[in-house]
Design brief:
The protein has 1061 residues and is of the alpha/beta class. Among the domains are: 165 residues, 2-Layer Sandwich (Chloramphenicol Acetyltransferase); 226 residues, Chloramphenicol Acetyltransferase; 162 residues, Rossmann fold, CATH 3.40.50; 96 residues, ANL, C-terminal domain (GMP Synthetase, Chain A, domain 3, 2-Layer Sandwich), CATH 3.30.300.30; 77 residues, ACP-like (Non-ribosomal Peptide Synthetase Peptidyl Carrier Protein, Chain A, Orthogonal Bundle), CATH 1.10.1200.10. 33% of the residues lie in helices and 21% in strands. It contains 30 helices and 41 strands. The strands form nine sheets. Strands 26, 27, 28, 29, 30, 31, 32, 34, 35 and 36 form a ten-stranded mixed beta sheet that branches. The protein has a six-stranded mixed beta sheet with strand order 5-6-7-2-13-12, sandwiched between helices. Strand 12 and strand 13 form a beta hairpin. The chain is elongated, with a radius of gyration of 34 Å.
Length: 1061
């Protein structure tokens, strides 16, 4: 029997009985019989926070075969409800105290005959209908009954009760009394027990605060970080999935548990906690565990004696499995000792709302035996799951099984797909097997993937096979020039060069460099403005076997000096006759038009494994680091994309980016090696969206490469432009793309192909690709697709282990694009370029990207931003990308950026910057974001800009963001007066101070100040008593600072017809 709400029902450790009596401080609600016990408060709060109140019910369904009297069963049912105060009660929640009072409403009993169609599903649909009907807790009574007669003479007895007043043992007692009529057993005194428990909870406030502080130290999120569910699903909509722990695993686990002196239930809790922590990318998790506190004297009392306690599970990866299990067992026992405390009161701040108080919980799976009476057999039925899950994941296992143990996983659709739920069950069984068979192993060696799942994950990281290219970049260019010598290769607005001319002029540059002493393997600086001559110079350097080092003249001189020194550059090619004044004296300056003394000097054959270029990227220490990329890396990128993208001589490419940015290598070399025409975009034009749009139109560019930030500016211009573009392929890279911003592009250019490509300088520009669809613009997909042919991408955890689909980890890139390493940085190269443990080619390496991503169940990769994009504000870990995503979901926003100011200090805060759609306003923007984000993730300010600033490479330039506008999202009060808004805040702060009896500031968190579940109920009543608009309990909990609550109250005051709910 399982309560269909996902409540934890079944036998568990007895935390000891509470003596009866009416202790001082246990307030009784007006007109009520008794106060709610702490565990009942938890059920009430969970129900109040649910989308569908009244759904936290427990159902018992039995098939009756033999002789029975329907009228007699009805009479016994009514007697049952009268006999047990818990069943004949109603909830009182409209005063300062919370409790139960006797209901004057007669209990509902239905006696009906099922239609013939019910035989098709064995009556399951009708039983499901009974499950789905909520219990009206405010009017009561809190149990109803139904006798569903079947055409074969059998019938189904279905009892449904509020979870407030029953657990499974209570339901078993209720069924027995209805079927046997036996009332000789004492009904006990549930009101007395609940009253004593409420008083004990008041006295245990100090223990609750201490427990909450202990749990707050754990690195926990408030929502599952690794789900791949349906965001449109309801909060509690769910499914269930049966699974089996094999006989050999269950028996061996019993032996291991006996040896270690622990219970199998603790081992199950530890296994769930380990899977949660690994999947969440942390070294700790919080698991809900069922515990029953039913005293022996109340064995046959109908009431709710159970509670869910949070068990912290900490991973000591260097320790042994046995040590981990013993520690977890001790944590379970410690949690059970606090089982008299309300769950909501011991949870860290922020966990009282959102996905639910806990990501996962465990409970025993228990099925009562059949009841055999004279002439009648009552067999328990597995009632249909009604689709309301109390937790994102709820694990039931038959703890009493001798052989194979049956299990059941209930899950929420909003967080987990059915495929992911099935994977979780396999992960759990895999970990239990490791526990059972390898207790002396190090915990770090325990895999949360079985071998089949591990191989599936690794296979998803492999791109299609790619044959290695044996020719170098200049060799392939010369071959291309021979095929189409008279086609235009490059033009810059002043000059146009044919392929044959570029080939000949680059030969001249190469010979002049060779005469200057440049040899294969050297590094040559190129300091030139964007022009046709720049392309000639780059190709000329490559023809010597040297690598070019970009020195963009627009970069600061200090930066260029660092690059020259780091790359050990001895020769620089330039577009001026004389060197710049700041060029070091030991550097030779070679004008690009220098003629060699020997124009027939032979040029060397270039080894494709030699470096092609050394591009410097930003370093965390402030010192740029040079990345050595080979010719074979570049030609692999060419061969991996040419056929799929249909690249060829008819294409016109734009060279939009600085040649010091690796995106340019894609634009230059893939264009020229496929025979296309390269249009050089002057730097000034690249920074002016209107002029750039005109250039694209005039030159009939077909292949456009952009960062999302730069494209946003172009897209705004395109909306106003008279003429259209000829672009057939847009390639995004360089930074994360929010596909929702592309809807206008698809409207205007429905035939254009859009590719979102993920890559990094160290793996040769691009590593994956995903064709963006119209559907992506509606869902805001962050998918970057699958690896390119020849590339490999694996999602690994901090210990280098493959993680499960849906789980975030660091992206490790291998295969044909992995660069040689960093210039003269052997230690950094060894740290970031590691050995590939499962290479397609022997000796392969992986590059640790520092980017976070996950493999979705369908086998595609989702990019989640930089690992260092995670910040900590007020103790909470926050992904800035998640906050930005919430802002972009608002129809008034077209672009957004979120930054943290005061990082690492107590004053740390989030500030948002947005570009608004036509007619958009920042009014209400943050309040709407608060509907999608926990309170601590909502930015303090929002500042509207005409455009987000970008760097020379087209990425967001955070340094140029202006100071945030204070209170930009604080609209006036209902009367339009700022003073009215301040008055509301003052009143809210005053009510909080009275209820909590502590000093209160506008941004203080209710639970951080010592707030409890009961105090939240009192706060709700006190706010109404202060003349403020009424708030529902879930609104009180979810707006957990005076500032957030004030914003909600002002909205409520401005909409007098709106119900509080």
């Amino acid at each position: 029997m399982i309560d269909r709400s996902g409540g934890l029902v079944g036998p568990g450790p007895d935390a000891g009985a509470i003596d009866g009596g009416d202790p001082a401080g246990a307030a009784r609600p007006a007109g009520a019989g008794w106060p709610l016990a702490p565990n009942q408060v938890g059920v009430h709060l969970a129900d109040a926070l649910a989308e569908r109140p009244g759904m936290h019910t427990v159902v018992a369904a039995y098939r009756l075969t033999g002789t029975f009297d329907g009228e007699l069963l009805a009479e016994r049912f009514r007697a049952l409800v009268r006999r047990h105060p818990a069943l004949s009660s109603r909830l009182v929640d409209d005063g300062p105290a919370l409790g139960m009072a006797r209901s004057d409403t007669a209990p509902e009993w239905r006696d009906e005959t099922l239609p013939p169609s019910a035989a098709d599903d064995d009556g399951a649909d009708r039983r499901l209908a009974e499950c789905l009907r909520p219990i009206d807790t405010r009017h009561g009574p809190l149990m109803r009954g139904a006798l569903l007669r079947r055409k074969d003479g059998d019938a189904d007895l279905v009892l449904t009760a509020s979870h407030l007043v029953v657990d499974d043992q209570a339901m078993e007692t209720a069924v027995a009394e209805v079927l046997t009529g036996d009332t000789t057993r004492s009904p006990g005194d549930y009101p007395g027990w609940a009253t004593a428990a409420a008083g004990a909870a008041l006295r245990g406030a100090g223990r609750a605060a201490a427990r909450r502080a202990e749990l707050a130290a754990l690195p926990l999120g408030t929502e599952p970080a690794w789900g791949c569910g349906d965001a449109a699903a309801g909060d509690a909509d769910g499914g269930q999935l049966p699974f089996t722990v094999p006989d050999d695993v269950w028996r061996k686990l019993a032996g291991t548990a006996r040896t270690l002196g622990i219970s199998r239930y603790s081992a199950l809790t530890a296994a769930v906690g380990l899977v949660l922590a690994r999947n969440g990318g942390t070294d700790a998790s919080l698991v809900g565990s069922f515990v029953t506190r039913r005293p022996a004297a109340q064995r046959h009392t109908i009431g709710y004696f159970s509670n869910t306690v949070p068990v912290p599970v900490r991973l000591a990866e260097d320790g042994t499995v046995a040590g981990f299990l013993r520690t977890c067992h001790r944590q379970c026992l410690a949690a059970y000792r606090d089982a008299d405390l309300p769950l909501f009161d011991v949870l860290p701040a922020g966990h009282q709302s959102g996905a639910g108080p806990l990501t996962a919980a465990v409970a025993p799976l228990w099925t009562p035996p059949p009841l055999r009476l004279p002439g009648l057999t009552a067999r328990p039925l597995p009632h249909p799951f009604a689709g309301a899950a109390k937790f994102p994941l709820l694990v039931y296992v038959d703890m009493a099984a001798e052989g194979a143990a049956e299990g059941l996983l209930q899950f929420r659709h909003r967080w987990f797909s059915a495929e992911q739920a099935a994977l979780f069950t396999r992960q759990l069984v895999a970990v239990l097997r490791e526990f059972a068979e390898r207790p002396d192993a190090r915990l770090v060696s325990v895999s949360v993937l079985d071998e089949a799942d591990r191989q599936r994950v690794l296979a998803a990281g492999l791109g299609a096979p790619l044959a290695p290219e044996e020719l170098s970049v200049p060799a392939l260019f010369t071959r291309r020039a021979g095929l189409s010598p008279d086609r235009i290769a490059v033009n810059d607005g002043h000059t146009a060069l044919r392929y044959a001319e570029v080939d000949e002029r680059s030969d001249t540059v190469a010979r002049a460099l060779a005469e200057a002493g440049v040899r294969a393997g050297d590094r040559v600086g190129v300091r030139m403005e964007r022009s046709c001559d720049l392309i000639v110079a780059l190709l000329g350097v490559l023809k010597t076997g040297a690598a070019y080092v970009p020195l963009d003249p627009s970069y600061p001189e200090a930066r260029l000096a660092l690059v020259i020194g780091d790359a050990d550059v001895r020769v620089v090619v330039g577009d001026a006759d004389s060197p710049p004044a700041d060029l070091p004296e030991h550097i030779d300056w070679l004008p690009v038009h220098t003629r060699p003394r020997d124009p027939a000097r032979p040029l060397p054959a270039v080894d494709p494994d030699l470096p092609c270029y050394a591009i410097h990227t930003s370093g965390s220490t402030g010192r740029p680091k040079g990345v050595l990329v080979t010719h074979r890396n570049v030609t692999s990128l060419l061969n991996a994309t040419r056929e799929d993208f249909g690249l060829g001589p008819d294409d016109v490419w734009s060279l939009f980016h600085s040649f010091a940015f690796d995106f340019s290598a894609w634009e230059i070399w893939v264009c020229l090696l496929t025979g296309g025409r390269l249009v050089v975009v002057p730097r000034a034009v690249s920074r002016n969206p209107e002029e750039f749009h005109q250039l694209l139109e005039d030159e009939e560019v077909t292949v456009l490469s952009q960062t999302p930030t730069a494209f946003g500016l172009l897209l705004a211009t395109d909306r106003l432009a008279r003429g259209g573009l000829s672009v057939r392929l847009v390639v995004f890279g360089g930074e994360p793309l929010d596909t929702r911003t592309l809807a206008p592009w698809f409207e205007r250019y429905p035939g254009a192909r859009v590719e979102n490509m993920y890559g990094i300088t160290e793996t040769t520009v691009h590593s994956t690709t995903h064709t963006v669809t119209r559907e992506d613009t509606r869902t805001g997909s962050r998918v970057v697709g699958r690896p390119l042919p020849g590339w490999e991408i694996y999602v690994l955890d901090a210990h280098g282990r493959p993680v499960a689909p849906g789980v975030a980890g660091e992206l490790h890139v291998g295969g044909s694009g992995v660069a040689l390493g960093y210039l003269d940085r052997p230690e950094l190269t060894a740290e970031r370029f590691t050995t590939d443990r499962h290479p397609r080619v022997p000796g392969g390496r992986l590059y640790r990207s520092g980017d976070q991503g996950r493999l979705l169940p369908g086998g595609v990769l989702e990019h989640l931003g930089r690992l260092d994009d995670q910040v900590k504000v007020r103790g909470f870990r926050i992904e800035l990308g998640e906050v930005r995503d919430a802002l972009l979901r608002d129809p008034s926003v077209t672009s957004a950026a979120v930054v943290v100011h005061g990082a690492g200090t107590a004053e740390a805060r989030l500030d948002a910057y947005v570009v608004l759609a036509d007619g958009g306003s920042t009014d209400g923007l943050l309040r709407r974001a608060a509907a999608r984000l926990p309170e601590y993730m909502v930015p303090q300010t929002v500042t509207a800009l005409t455009a987000l600033p970008v760097t020379a490479n087209g990425k967001l330039d955070k340094a140029r963001l202006p100071a945030p506008e204070p209170d930009a999202d604080a609209p006036a009060g209902p009367a339009g007066s700022p003073d009215a808004a301040g008055d509301v805040l003052d009143r809210v702060v005053g009510v909080w101070r009275d209820v909590l009896d502590v000093p209160v500031a506008p941004d203080d968190n209710f639970f951080d100040l010592g707030g409890t579940s009961l105090l939240a109920l009192r706060l709700k009543t006190a706010l109404r008593g202060a003349g403020l608009p009424e708030l529902a309990l879930k609104e009180v909990i979810r707006h957990a600072t005076p500032a957030a609550m004030t914003a909600l109250l002002r909205d409520r005051a401005g909409a007098p017809g709106e119900a509080a709910g």
